[in-house]
Amino acid sequence: MTSVTSDVYGCLPGGFTVKRFCLQSESVKVEIISFGCIITCLETKDRHGNFSDIVLGFDYLEGYTNKHPYFGAVIGRVANRIAKGRFTVDSKDYFLPINNGPNSIHGGLKGFDKVLWTPEVVENGVQLSYTSDDGEEGYPGELKVLVTYTLVGNELVVNYKAWTSKATPVNLTNHSYFNLAGQGSENIYDHEISIDADHYLPVDDTMIPTGDINPVEGTYFDLRKPVILGSQIAKLQESGFDHNFCLKESKRQQTCARVWHNPSGRVLSVRTTQPGVQLYTANFLDGSLKGKGGAKYGKHSAFCLETQAWPDAVNKPQFPDIVLHCGEQYDQTTCYQFSVE
Ligand code: BGC
């Protein structure tokens, strides 16, 4: 049985109320706010039955309205990077705000993480809707978006649906930062990870995929068998993982990643319908943000598993297509399962 309760989380300028929804089962408690569809708290049990909050974030709304690295938020209209903020759809060129080096990232200056969604309680969860105007952040077409979070037992399921009035790229994900030792723990070096991907996307020095789809075989990106994150990160030339792993093509949910934290026993397993997952090991966190309970989040203090379409797909015909057309439905689901071992 999942209980769903709500309260007022805060107030935005202009008097708009931000609501918080608490979904609670026997083994998991998750809190979601209507600003940015953000997961602000996610408590799961360790092997002794003790709950800890395993996601990074802030104690107050201001943390989320200020600039921050997308803690817990839903990202859109297009998650990840679009090279030079440019693309062409239906023979028309579009120009997006440049907000990451020479590129556009995570929906632009005011992406879906920075807007107020309209929430509605549903069975075992909450459904949040948002209509993105034609031209918003440079993207074509009015896009109606519906994000549904449901909790059943130890599984948190996130479903994303969208419909557009004109052809537009769409790529929606959730950007939660996990630390299975509990948020505020120093790093994730003692976590063991596996990702079921035979290929990954190498990137250029602005983090845009080169266009190659490289086999993981024989590289440090081969995570098909579990590896310890600390020692694997140490082997990389890069400062950590920040790469898209290409998942096997399937319309059905497939297991894409598993993370095990031996000291607590916590396990996170992720299943998704998406064609890719970005493993990001919080390489850009530097301890300057004041997080929950005064925590200072340093480099590698969390990992993200952003299930998504492939970065810059709108400019790479060899990547799975991300253009949604008028009359079509975007429909993607990611399931996070929490257990102990
Ligand atoms: C990107 C990182 C970026 C982070 C926060 C991730 O999706 O891959 O490069 O730093 O989001 O913006």
Automatic annotation (TrEMBL):
InterPro entries: Ald1_epimerase_CS, Aldose_1-epimerase, Aldose_1/G6P_1-epimerase, Gal_mutarotase_sf_dom, Galactose_mutarotase-like, GH-type_carb-bd. The keyword Nuclease does not apply. Signal peptide: none annotated. The active site is at H175 (proton donor), E306 (proton acceptor). Pathway: Carbohydrate metabolism; galactose metabolism; Carbohydrate metabolism; hexose metabolism. GO terms for molecular function: aldose 1-epimerase activity; carbohydrate binding. The keyword Mitochondrion does not apply. One of its GO terms (cellular component) is cytoplasm. It is found in: Cytoplasm. Keywords: Carbohydrate metabolism, Cytoplasm, Isomerase, Phosphoprotein. Beta-D-galactose binds at N80, R81, H175, S176, Y177, D242. GO terms for biological process: galactose catabolic process via UDP-galactose, Leloir pathway; glucose metabolic process. Its main location: cytoplasm. Its EC number is 5.1.3.3. SUPFAM superfamilies: Galactose mutarotase-like. It catalyses: alpha-D-galactose = beta-D-galactose; alpha-D-glucose = beta-D-glucose. It comes from the Eukaryota. Belongs to the aldose epimerase family. NCBIfam families: PRK11055.1. Mutarotase that catalyzes the interconversion of beta-D-galactose and alpha-D-galactose during galactose metabolism. Beta-D-galactose is metabolized in the liver into glucose 1-phosphate, the primary metabolic fuel, by the action of four enzymes that constitute the Leloir pathway: GALM, GALK1 (galactokinase), GALT (galactose-1-phosphate uridylyltransferase) and GALE (UDP-galactose-4'-epimerase). Involved in the maintenance of the equilibrium between the beta- and alpha-anomers of galactose, therefore ensuring a sufficient supply of the alpha-anomer for GALK1. Monomer. This is Aldose 1-epimerase.
